[in-house]
């Protein structure tokens, strides 16, 4: 990771440099590929305040830029460090939470489901669902009457998913 500290209208002392470098070291705990960190300190004599800016270039993300203005330089650095840490933590959490499932794990899950379905093989009859464009309830009823299927899943004109099924009473139908 390349680091640079730039001071404008302020003399950079060793203690300021050490403090900024210590803050940058905390970013390593997120295990992200940080390419470079640029720290900029701007002193404003009129307002007697400091503006501190972190600019981080991270692989696979856009550049993260955080600016903080405060009368105390060290307070500005601390607040900016906290804000950058929050961004890095969120990105790290997003990466670790979205790990892909291994192929061997997927096969194990399918095997468990297949074993569960075998228990109910006598009671459950699998049906193939076919979903097309939105249709009227009357059209769905006509299609169900013509087919041997027990139910029909479709979207109505309001984009609501509906289920039309043959009731236990002969010639009667139910609708969810």
From TrEMBL:
Name this protein carries in UniProt: Ribosome hibernation promoting factor
Under Gene Ontology molecular function, one entry of this record is: ribosomal small subunit binding
The source organism is: Aliarcobacter trophiarum LMG 25534
Give me the gene this protein comes from: raiA
Has UniProt tagged this entry with the keyword Transmembrane? no
For this protein, the record's Pfam families field holds: Ribosom_S30AE_C (PF16321), Ribosomal_S30AE (PF02482)
Which CDD domains does the record match to this protein?
Answer: RaiA
Alphabetically sorted, this entry's keywords are: Translation regulation
Q: Identify the residues that the record assigns to the Sigma 54 modulation/S30EA ribosomal protein C-terminal domain, covering every copy.
A: 121-175
Please provide, in alphabetical order, the Gene Ontology terms of the cellular component aspect for this entry: cytosolic small ribosomal subunit
Mind telling me which InterPro entries this protein's record contains? Answer: HPF/YfiA_ribosome-assoc (IPR050574), RHF-like (IPR036567), RHF/RaiA (IPR003489), Ribosom_S30AE_C (IPR032528), Ribosom_S30AE_C_sf (IPR038416)
Gene3D superfamilies, per this entry?
Ribosome hibernation promotion factor-like, Sigma 54 modulation/S30EA ribosomal protein, C-terminal domain
| The protein's assembly and partners | Associates exclusively with 100S ribosomes, which are dimers of 70S ribosomes.
The organism's taxonomic lineage, starting at the top? Bacteria, Pseudomonadati, Campylobacterota, Epsilonproteobacteria, Campylobacterales
Task: Report if keyword Zinc is assigned.
Answer: no
Q: Which GO terms describe its biological process?
A: negative regulation of translational elongation
* PANTHER family the UniProt entry points to: 30S RIBOSOMAL PROTEIN (PTHR33231:SF1)
């Amino acid at each position: 990771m390349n680091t640079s500290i730039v001071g404008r209208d302020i003399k950079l002392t060793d203690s300021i440099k050490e403090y900024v470098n210590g803050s940058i070291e905390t970013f390593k705990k997120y295990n992200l590929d940080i390419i470079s960190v640029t720290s900029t300190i701007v002193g404003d004599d009129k307002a007697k305040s400091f503006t501190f800016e972190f600019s981080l270039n991270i692989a696979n993300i856009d550049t993260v830029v955080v600016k903080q203005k405060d009368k105390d330089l060290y307070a500005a650095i601390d607040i900016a460090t906290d804000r950058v840490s929050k961004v890095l933590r969120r990105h790290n959490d997003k990466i670790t939470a979205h790990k892909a499932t291994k192929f061997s794990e997927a096969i194990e899950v399918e095997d468990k489901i297949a074993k569960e379905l075998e228990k109910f093989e006598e009671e459950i009859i699998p049906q193939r669902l076919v979903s097309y464009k939105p249709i009227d309830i009357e059209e769905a009823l006509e299609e169900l009457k013509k087919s041997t299927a027990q139910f029909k899943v479709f979207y109505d004109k309001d984009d609501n998913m509906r289920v039309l099924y043959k009731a236990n009473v002969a010639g009667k139908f139910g609708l969810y």
